[in-house]
Amino acid sequence: YTIPWxxxxxxxxxxxxxxxxxxxxxxxxxxxxxxxxPDLPPHEWVLKVxxxxxxxxxxxxxxxxxxxxxxxxxxxxxxxxxxRRSLLEVSGSVxxxxxxxxxxxxxxxGGGTHHAHVDWGAGYTCLNxxxxxxxxxxxxxxxxxxxxxxxxxxxxxxxxxIFAGDSSVFTMSMHCAQxxxxxxxxxxxxxxxxxxxxxxxxxxxxxxxxxxxMAELKAHLPKILENFAPDLLLYIGGVDVWEGxxxxxLNLTESGIYERDHYIVDQAxxxxxxxxxxxxxxxxxxxxxxxxxHSLVHRAAIQVWGALQEEAGKREGALQAxxxxx
Length: 326
Known about the structure:
By secondary structure, the chain is of the alpha/beta class.
């Protein structure tokens, strides 16, 4: 998903390659060949969510300059490369969703483009990957009810707008209440921001730390899983909640981010709900530390998966021991 990019651009386009390299260096995979690479998606997938005129104006490079400026990508070396990597990221989330249904957990080294609306993008997102994944799997009859848990520091306004009034999708956004996309009412040319509501919005105060954050999460997620009973959980594990993030206003430590990720994955697995983990936002000039923070959700998921396999092995051993007495 990484393409040539200005080094001083706010969006860390290089983080996707950095994360992949980090996962190899840390021994989670041996070589890059072990990563499952998506193909470009058919247009029909994206059009299940996005307006036809908006979509084709984006992929054909004729988008209105104002709409392009909204995305944050008006300054880009190659529009063609931006389109391609955006489409691949969407396809990656569809692929990860299929894999989650087959294996229980799937880890995506990108994804979480939650500001993209039906006919406009914002906040460094042009196409809404999790919305497309949801609609594709629903259309194919693979799932009926999808839960989207978004813990990026910024509200998932695009996802909220896309699924507003749709009882088959529950959108939960846990974010800083005084951060983008809020705070623009009355600001010229920015009135389109901050108007969307998720099924559950948990707006946290500036400076919220690990303890308060986890208390809020634990107060809500188990109830949603029980009452909504999803067939699939799509998770955005944004690391812009970190205490030193350039665009975040919360105070989570790296340990707190890991605890959050581990809890959410464990809740899904414990309830028998397949989960897709995407990385969401993260803004830091220290590339190594940013890659590490984005790896936390993958580390947490791998730990949960390992514990699950260990427990399954113990049960199998107990069954074999019982059988020996028959």
